[in-house]
Input
Amino acid sequence: MNKLIQFKNIVKEFDSQIVLKSINLDIYENEFVTLLGPSGCGKTTLLRILGGFLEPNEGEVLFDGVSILGIPPYKREINTVFQKYALFPHLNVYDNIAFGLKIKKEPKDIIEQKVMRMLRLVGLEEYKKRRVTEMSGGQQQRVAIARALVNEPKVLLLDEPLGALDLKLRKEMQRELKRIQKEVGITFIFVTHDQEEALTMSDKIVVMKNGEIQQIGSPTDIYNEPVNRYVANFIGESNIIEGIMPEDYKVIFEDRLFDCVDSGFEKNEAVDVVIRPEDIDIVPVKEGKLTGTVKSVLFKGVHYETIVETKTGTAITVAMTVSDPKPVQNMSADESMSANDFYIDITDIPELTNAEIIARADAQAWKTSTEELVSITKVDYEVKAEKGSYPVTFSTSAGTMTTIHMIVADENKVEEGNEVIYAVNIYKTIDDIKESMVLETDLKTWANAQAWTADGETGIAITDVDYDFDQDNITTGTYSITFSTRGYEYKIDTTEKYEAGDKVGLDFAPDDLHIMSREGNP
Amino acid sequence: MKKHIFTKIFIGLTVLFFYLPIVYTVIFSFNSSRSLSVFGGFSLQWYQKMFKNSDMMDSIFYTIIIAVLATIISTIAGTVTAIGLSKSNKVLRGITEQVNNLPIMNPDIVTAIGLLMLFSSLAVTKGFMTLLLSHIMFCIPYVILSVMPKLRSLDPNITDAALDLGCTPLQALTKVIVPQITSGIFAGALIAFTMSFDDFVISYFVTGSGVNNISIMIYTMSKRINPSINALSTVIIGIITTVLLILNITPIILEKRKEKMKK
Amino acid sequence: MKSFKSMAYPYIIWSIFLIVLPMLLIVIYAFTKEGNSVINIQFTLENFARFFSDKVFFNVLKRSFFIAVATTIICILLGYPLAYVTARMKPKSQIVMVFMVTIPTWINMLVRTYAWRGILDKSGILNSLLGLFGIGPVQFLETGFAVILGMVYNFLPFMVLQIYNSLSKMDYSYIEAASDLGADRLHTFLRVTLPLSIPGVISGITLVFLPAVSSFFIPKLLGGGQYVLIGNVIENQFLTSGDWGFGSAISLIMAIIIIISMHITKKLDKDPSSEGGKL
Output
């Protein structure tokens, strides 16, 4: 096969923002090539450079071995199906398709023949006199394809042409496009952000991110052998686990050694392991290579998407002291006020604000008769960055006041593996608990529970809050609350339905594991 | 390159065409001689004459007072009507919008003679009130026309959301609907003001009892060459330019102030 | 919301009295005799017969129509290039240019029209300029030239803005698509840009032709007593001779001419595409 198009070191900037970083790409004759990536990855820019609507800042575009930079779009043997089709609203279907031929001044009978052939190709013979504005999205799409193909280009560019169609029509057009491409036998370059579209139609997929090509390959290559976490995530569902390669054909993850079929990594190189959901089988606990608990099950039509947790995340437990104090009453001003003692980390002292103290102490003041909230105007306290108990006095402008204790303690944290989780002990009233409408969220807020990666760079979501009391029938006393992050989870496609809480084993074959370099150092 | 120069010359000539009469008027209002073509030296004599001429001064007064009143009344009435129409059924809204378009689509002179005959048939004495009523009448349609699209682009559930959250209908109107259509209301008010300020044809037919606006003044005085008209015209050009400048510069200043506040 | 709906009612009543009723009065007066006393109203076509039997009036009508058509054509010829050039400028220059075209329209038409008297007068600046080349003095005022110039001057901005709007709103992908299909700049303009901007031209025509055909102060200020148009005749009927019936009839005739002209213009817009369908 011949190299039809060659992009060489293409760089494109808009307003000194780099959109394409040195793109190199060869496209062959009769290929169906898909440029795949999220919006803003530069795929459309690359297409527009090929179409002649943009000039790159650096690099070369060769067409049949000859540079086409500087050649205007109307002289290129390339036609485009535009994003929203750009059908000329003042022309009917026939005239839209005949447009390019009329410009070239082809004889009328030839035009008629060619247009009719195109109408037949896209199945719109009946519609030639229809106004394009009166047609459905799918029909407009076909007209746009016919309008481009009638000029017999060597390459057809399609800029997210199916984006505006609904799901069913999109599937139909995918098949249709593939059929048309086979029938006319020219190169199609297709831009999309839909991975499924790319997988079904393409001979070759080019995955792009931030103006760079991540991977070029056939759909099966890209699906089975993604080069990095980004590609694996973008193409299809996948479980990605961090692991280490002690030697060729061996990989360690979840502290166990498994066989695999990959080689060529450095000794003890840190890697990402990809297992596709359909490649994992759920087996009895004893037979599993890994064991875990079913966390949730979602019905997906043909199969169940079962989430199995093999290891719980990092957890921290704090004490909650529940009391039942009466609010302070100020009869003369018709005001009431309440507040709790609270714990605070030493490290938080320097950044302490009044608003923070009011929130932590859950201090509130209100009109006794109407329950209308009154603002707390003054917060008096003295605190040192030392452990101990410090009094805090809140007061309103009417003179209602209450005093509580702020208990400064060491940071309460648990560090495990790559995660750190923090939380503080709390004091609450029975009413606080009973009146909470989103108890788990409130508990997180009150205890200031947070989790981070060990380097402190990225926050980690706290997914579980466990507590040993009944919200509606709580009494005074001390209770424990456990906050935890997500552990290792596997997404598994099963045909059988499992129940949440089932203990199961997971099984997979060595060739189900795909090992990738860590992203960032490919 | 040649093409480029040709384009520039073309733009230059059209701009000259648009501004020549305006510049001419301003310059010759300061002319010390009566000549139309020779600038005899700087003088304020035509302004003095204008200020001494009570008819001219009255016309400036009437023009401004009518424009201000007509703008305020028609902006309020037009906005209220537009909101009402946006909640009305299609038939009523369709008919009212058609009727509303009549004064915009009709040649001014047709609207003018219609009003003239109406006032005369009802034996109303023509003067300040008929002038004001007529101005309100032709201003409201423009206000409705510029407020309507803004209302149409509002989320239809927005009023219901406001009521759901405890607003009374009046609060929903003032706190939720009006804030979202202010740009349309301002645009309508601006059009109403200039329409009223510049109107000649309708005013000319419906006024009487010596109540004249600037346009009528110029029309009746124009039979003889009278450089005082240039002075009067310059005053109008000054007023309108100031209004336009304020309207266009205020948003820029506000924006800059906001940016500073952020810093 | 019933309470919101009722907000439109006062204006509906207002518009019946101040918009619909005056229009009805024009029709009634045009078709009746002795309209000044309500009881003696009689249907008549006399007013129309008088207009068409008197050659003077008919000539005025023809002249008004001719002037308006000429004004409209000149406005298109000048306005389209200006709008096109503007729409192809950088966004910032576009704003400035649109502003430049708009400002004059905010200033009183009479003020600007009156200024042309000083420029076009026999002793005005234009003639003094021509004098330097040994030409003239030329009689500009009180000619059809001055009237058309005044109208073009007053109404050109409307044409420019309408065409500019349709050009600047046009989806740029149409132009790219034409280029992609092999059309060079000239062909792209003739086959895509121009046809797609026709709606803008049409609304421009409406905004120019309508005031041009009914204007009466421009002919009065620049045409003097010599150049009478239909607007001046109507003015005379109402403010000088007091013949409301005849005046109303003339305005109705004018309105009908406007409606017919607009109808023809709109048809012209639709025709090319329906012809295209016959291919």
